[in-house]
Amino acid sequence: MPPPSRNNSTSKNWMDSYVAPSGEYDEYLDTNGKPRPHWDAAASQLSKIDEGSWQQRHQQLDELIKENGITYNVYQDNQAEHQRQWSLDLLPLMLDAKEIEDLEERLSQRVHLLNLVLEDVYGRQTLLRSGGMHPYILYGNPSFHPPCHGLVSHRHKHIQIYSADLTRGPDGSWIVLGDRVEPASGLGYALANRMLATRTLPKLMQAMEVASLQPFVNAFSRAVESLSPFRSDNPNVALLTPGPTDETYFEHNFLARNLGYTLAEGADLTVRNNQLYMKTIGGVQRVDVLLRRVNSQFCDPLELRSDSLIGVPGLTNAVRQGNLSVSNSLGSGFVQTSSLLAFLPWFSRNFLGESLEIPSVATWWCGQESEKKFVIDNIDRLAIKPTFWASGINSQFGPNLTTAEKQDLIARINHRPEAYCGQEIVSASTIPVADGYKLVSRHSKLRVFLVATEDGWKMMPGGLARYSKSVTDLSITTAGGGTSKDVWVVGKSKHKGVQEKRPVAHVSVSSLQKSQSELPSRSADNLFWLGRYIERAESRTRVLHSLWTILAEESAPENQKVAIPFLEQIVPSNQNISGFLSHKGTTLNTAKTEEAILEALFNENNSDSLISTIASVERTASKAKERLSTDTWKRLVAMRDITQATKNQDHSVYDNATIELLEHSLEALSAFIGNLMENTTRTQGWRFLEIGRRIERAGVIANMLQSSFIGREKDDEILIPKLLAWADSAMTYRRRYLNTYTDINTLDVICLDYDNPRALAFQAQQLKNLLAELPHAINGERNPIDQTALRVFSSVALADISAFTIDSRGEGGKLDTFFQEIITNLGLLGSHIESTYFAHTQPQVRQSAQINLG
């Protein structure tokens, strides 16, 4: 039961507020109500943290989770419901190092046994032939895939990365609730938890000498890379993800970024001549090892599941031909089925000649007559689960069923006994959880991780602990709202302080090359559009700020009509702009203008509104998160929070909150762009981002200048200052031309100045330089990209500004034609870049020659 209420802020030791439930094993207190030995030092240190400091740390933790974008996608009816912010309890779970060493040895036996089972199932099938495995357990299992028979070579295991869900019995002994290999998720969240704990409780971690996770991370990456079938010193490893809608996409991104692997979706990969390749901006690049975060059946629509849209056709055969290693092996999910737990003790005795050292939760498969009878007779105290998870049968807890529901369930078991198994309901061990400045009890389970190394299985000195929402709730799932804990391994250990070093590949300096073409096409696409959305958001903010300034500062109605060129940037193209003018076109219709401003600011259903554009920035950035620095992501979160704070509020153009939103958004965008420019390595990814920005900015400038100068009064001394302020070029103009406002001077500064980052000429010059560094240009290939870019650059470079000012200013004049050609060619340039680098419908001749497929 929860501890009795007490005023912990006045307690000498708030850790004393905890009361452990009776009859269950508690991780903190022993049966005498005293802290366990490995908790002593931590309890002493924690007791010194006062309530104010503890709450500060909680606030810091929440901010860090938000800043780092740590999320878990929640699903309902197979549809993404929302991104849920990750939840971590500030109080860690302490485990004794000697106990972890013992657990490592016992779990090593278990995963070795599972490997032997998979080797038999996808090999000689002696279990099936001898009658040791019922045919239904094999052939009825949707995770058994006949095309995977014989895929794994003898020098590799089926399982390289293993995790197990554990809890303790009342006597403190560990019990395995389930084995996880398909895929073994949670590692990324465990590492993220440690990162958060290091920031919030650094002194406590140092005082406790908490075991480092880095040696395990090194062993993990070394194990993955050693799988390369070509035994290269620097294999190409890709992490296969279902994509941003997957519930654990953050983890995929986090692991790829921290391990240095390329994050790939199925559409990024292709199989040619039985070899897996990544589609990159320079062509296709061979993949040696695939670390998958996609279930086996979805990996290959050609051989495993034909309706999969997230796999790669031909992937299975690439493995079969020895050209690719996949971790864990395709089909390894066979050993995850609940019913298999009932047979593991027998398998252990017959495969290993020894007892299973760490027991599973007691399980009875109803496909055997005596076991079925036992389950039915004891249905009141068992959980009834499907033999296979994908069967469409839901798990049910006997104690929660009515008499009628039990009778109905018994009838279904009798009708299809092989489809059900009974499982003991384990009352999970309890842990202390921080509820404000007091401790309460919750049921928990622990997910631990092991990796195969040359020296045997190595267990991470930590893990992912999760606990229930209430003391009476026995369901512990992340999707159901369970909260996590960082796991600290403390005390003396044979691994303590040993930092495993990665072997150094002896490569001659002359052979080292910086590859500029390994960027996946999808990543290039995302970065290109991230650049465009960023620039679009900044432009929209500047335009709206200019409109607000016109309404606020220009009191004369006839002067307010200078808002029209700015309005043309935010209203739909099919809307007649003349409708914003009244009194024969001499004054501005302010009511309609205010409505348009609010629409362009806050309407989430308008894809061009500021709030929608910033959402597009965040959505696109999340797809390329592995290529953004942590500081850059923090700036993005700050920018998003500014717009999110305005939701569900009534707005007026003249509210102080409106101008503050615009100014704060502009500041946040500038900080985000500044971080991108300062913290992004000048690789091809950065170039695509910059190309996207420059195309978008050039188009915006051309559109704005066309709207401002075509069909308008000459040398408008009210419009030009507003235009210069929008382009952030007022100071440049005044230094050069003082306060004499003319069209020719304005065009010189905003259109033809190669030194002004806000000028059209600057964008054209930057595009020319950036495009010259793309693979097609480096390899000397002719491409429509170059021809179109040259037209943009030449148009600006050869522009005769005097002809612009002398010529007619109406539609169809030289100035109008100039801007229209620029706008058209920029659109073509974007299309040519997309078709060249983001499509890959056919390999280029150069690419095939480089790969040497023959």
TrEMBL record:
Signal sequence bounds: none
Stored InterPro entries: ATP-dep_Glu-Cys_Ligase-2 (IPR051680), CP_ATPgrasp_2 (IPR025841), DUF403 (IPR007296)
Cited SUPFAM superfamilies: Glutathione synthetase ATP-binding domain-like
Pfam family, one: CP_ATPgrasp_2
Residue span(s) of domain DUF403: 519-838
Domain Circularly permuted ATP-grasp type: 92-467
Highest taxon above the source species: Bacteria
Protein name stated in the entry: Circularly permuted type 2 ATP-grasp protein
Source organism per UniProt: Pelagicoccus albus
